[in-house]
Amino acid sequence: GAGVSQSPSNKVTEKGKDVELRCDPISGHTALYWYRQSLGQGLEFLIYFQGNSAPDKSGLPSDRFSAERTGGSVSTLTIQRTQQEDSAVYLCASSLGTRGLYEQFFGPGTRLTVL
Amino acid sequence: AQRVTQPEKLLSVFKGAPVELKCNYSYSGSPELFWYVQYSRQRLQLLLRHISRESIKGFTADLNKGETSFHLKKPFAQEEDSAMYYCALSGRGYGNKLVFGAGTILRVKS
Questions:
Q1: B-chain residues within 8 Å CB-CB of A102?
Q2: pLDDT tens for residues B70-96?
């Protein structure tokens, strides 16, 4: 079946602009995770959803970052007033649940470049 | 605090040689440990997890709670093993969010 998909695959934006990144999880997966992969910080957790609720937003680096999930499916990560340090690959993953026995399946990522 | 340390950024070995990718962790409790792999131009994927105690593609990893380590081993490296390897942990009660190490690039030379 279809895996996790993300769009766009690449996004180039100017400093100060807002961007929206989209994640389509595997159908039936109730848990959805956002991670960021950058040269300086490696792979870091941003936020996760169980259904439409976000119990843990502790990884969001600033209040310019927000995320939502609707219908227990698609999620959008929004970055307002982008800065150059926001440049990174943003990864989305989904799993059947939030217990450790459930494998997280990753999407291909969105490469964000802030000029 | 949860932390995963992979001391080697790059490990280069010859085909047929043994491989050991090191991973140490700090966590106050009983974590679940994973190895993820990212081949060139492919997405990140799970390689193995300690609770399964299985061998995948010839790789094994044993959780050593005394040394807080979860090293990844393979007795005979193959060229197709060349990839980026990430060690990760998740803690109970944390929604299974993953804490990753910095990653180790494994390069297998012919």
A1: 96
A2: 999 999 999 999 999 999 999 877 778
